[in-house]
Amino acid sequence: MARRGMSREQAMADYVALVNRLKAEESLEA
């Protein structure tokens, strides 16, 4: 966490969280 720059794992986790949030919003609208 203290390192400068995101590790690939952290970037992946952030991307997955973003996609999941978008899917959840789409399902709520539908």
From TrEMBL:
Domain ACB stretches:
1-28
* InterPro entries referenced in this protein's UniProt entry, alphabetically: Acyl-CoA-binding_protein
Species this protein is from: Chromobacterium violaceum
The source's superkingdom equals Bacteria
An MF annotation (GO) of this entry: fatty-acyl-CoA binding
Protein name, as recorded = ACB domain-containing protein
